[in-house]
Design goal:
91 residues, mainly beta, Folate-binding fold, two-stranded antiparallel sheet, 10% helix, globular
């Protein structure tokens, strides 16, 4: 089980959170072709190693935030607020 540190509430166990998928995915404009729209909807990175993810503290404060997590070790490298740019992470 992951122990995630909410930026507002502090460390809590994973069942309090909802996974929101890959972070920093930009929605295309409405006038794009079907292939671009399909790529936005269905294609996500699935790296072995560092992954940028969105999480919601759904059974706590209800706030969304970003996490940088290693998918191999499940180590959480950093937690940062929505709207912030990707932090520089050394792997």
């Amino acid at each position: 089980m992951l122990r995630i540190s909410c930026p507002w509430c502090g460390p809590r166990d994973e069942p309090e959170y909802a996974f929101g998928g890959e972070s920093h995915v930009v929605r295309p404009t409405p006038d794009v072709d079907d292939a671009t729209w399909a790529q936005y909807l269905f294609q996500r990175e699935n790296p072995k190693g560092v992954q940028f993810e969105r999480w919601c503290h759904s059974y706590g404060c209800g706030q969304w935030f970003n996490i940088v997590r290693d998918t191999v070790t499940h180590e959480i490298l950093t937690v940062y607020q929505m709207g912030a740019g990707k932090p520089a992470i050394e792997t």
